[in-house]
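Recall the central idea of this unit: under ordinary conditions, the amino acid sequence of a chain determines the structure it adopts. In this exercise we apply that idea directly, starting from the sequence alone.
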Amino acid sequence: MKITVKLFASVRDLCGFDEKEIIVPEGITVEEVLKRLTVSFPGLGAKRAALLCAINEEYAPPDAALAEGNVLAVFPPVSGG
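Accordingly, the structure predicted from this sequence is:
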């Protein structure tokens, strides 16, 4: 199935892209997509535990399953005052 991965801020800088369509197996989870990204972009490994993810603009836990056409957004924690 095809999903779109969107990366933001330092995650985008580490991976070198801001949006990409990828082909993944049916029922893949957010965590499994992050593992695949970490294999392709090892610098992401140090940040992986703190990353926030959203599916179709709603926060999603690591065990959330993705479906055909979903948009997975990945970004670092937001801080500020």
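The chain has two helices and five strands.
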